[in-house]
Amino acid sequence: MLYAMIGDDVPGSLEARLKARPAHLARLEALRDEGRLVLAGPMPAIDSPDPGPAGFSGTLMVAEFESLAAAEQWFADDPYVTQGVFARTSVKPFKKVLP
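Predicted structure:
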């Protein structure tokens, strides 16, 4: 089943986010290579594709896991979580309709 994973950044997260990014991307690339990643990306803190020093307000990822517990564990182990980028996280079942 698909799961939406959402992380809301702590204020001033840009430095921590940049530091954790290579390890975070490596985990997402592994999901992609397994054919389990639907989409992933950050949410700019301002209305711009390149927010510069304003940074990001969070991240959205949708991927396939065998269970909600497995998705929650995968997310709990993500470097953005373990290195303090996110203030809050949530994982919810997701049903893709389009495209």
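Summary: The CA atoms of residues 24 and 79 lie 6 Å apart.
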